[in-house]
Amino acid sequence: MSILVVGSVAFDSVATPFGKAEEVLGGSATYFSTSASFFTDVNLVAVVGEDFPKQHIDFLQERSIDLSGLTFAAGKTFRWSGEYGYDLNEAKTLDTQLNVFANFCPKLPEQYLNADYVFLGNIDPELQLEVLKQVVRPKVVACDTMNFWIEGKREALITTLKYVDILLINDAEVRQLADEPNIVKAAHKVLAMGPKTLVVKRGEYGATMFTEHGIFSAPAYPLEAVFDPTGAGDTFAGGFMGYLASVGKYTDAAMRQAIIFGSVMASFNVEAFSLDRMRTLEFAEVQERYRKFQLLTEFGGID
User: Fold this and answer.
1) Which residues in the chain land under pLDDT 70?
2) Which pLDDT tens digit goes with each residue over 149-197?
3) Three-state secondary structure readout of the chain
């Protein structure tokens, strides 16, 4: 089954202790779509400016990402600039230029209205809700958000969460949203807001899933070289949702497997700047790393 994703397509300028990249392809919807496209068809809704080059369009189309919902507006494409220290879990934002993204108002093409799987990228929760009003009867709705919206548009976000099945955010955002320092207590408070599943992205420490059935936690895949963590969370979400859509199941077992696939995709993404590693990635490599992940977390019973 295909996935509908609504979010940002951007140019990123990133510096890490291991190098830097200027004006490279980025954006939450871009990372998500590229990752999810390894598992299923993706329909992308976003806005870019007149300066968005054909080479990026070609790359997305080569990944079989449907761009019928990509709008070209007069002006410049959204730009973000940031840097990382040796703590690669947190980026320092140097500059944000919303440009055409400031007036983004998602309008879904008619062929997207019956989407079964929907991912609402990190945008204004009021816009997220507007997207959901356009979709007919989605089977699974997943959502991302950030501290900016939790602080500035809390009530709108809580309203949107009532219509969301899966919320994917980091541990600091969970604590902020729940106003609770203990992550387990915070998770239960967030689940009470509407989502049936909460997936907590924890960077180099992995991911933890909370549902009414219990808790599942998986480590991050250990890597010798991490060049650029930008987009890792969106890449994780793309692998997670892409796998769920590919198997057409929303069960506890399927979500546990989806978390591992999400972690696998994120582990590849951080090996190079922007989407450079994803450009050369083969699905056989994804499957092989999934198998290594199984060995990494496997343990026997009590003798």
Assistant:
1) 303
2) 999 999 999 999 999 999 999 999 999 999 999 999 999 999 999 999 9
3) CCEEEECCCEEEEEEECCEEEEEEEECHHHHHHHHHCCCCCEEEEEEECCCCCHHHHHHHHHCCEEEEEEEECCCCCCEEEEECCCCCCCCEEEEEECHHHHHCCCCCCHHHCCCCEEEECCCCHHHHHHHHHHCCCCCEEEECCCHHHHHHCHHHHHHHHCCCCEEEEEHHHHHHHHCCCCHHHHHHHHHCCCCCEEEEECHHHCEEEEECCEEEEECCCCCCCCCCCCCHHHHHHHHHHHHHHHHCCCCHHHHHHHHHHHHHHHHHHCCCCCCHHHHHCCHHHHHHHHHHHHHHHCCCCCC
pLDDT for the residue 69: 97
Residue-wise pLDDT for 92-118, tens only, equals 899 999 999 999 999 999 999 999 999
- Domains of the chain plus CATH, in order, are 3-297 (3.40.1190.20)
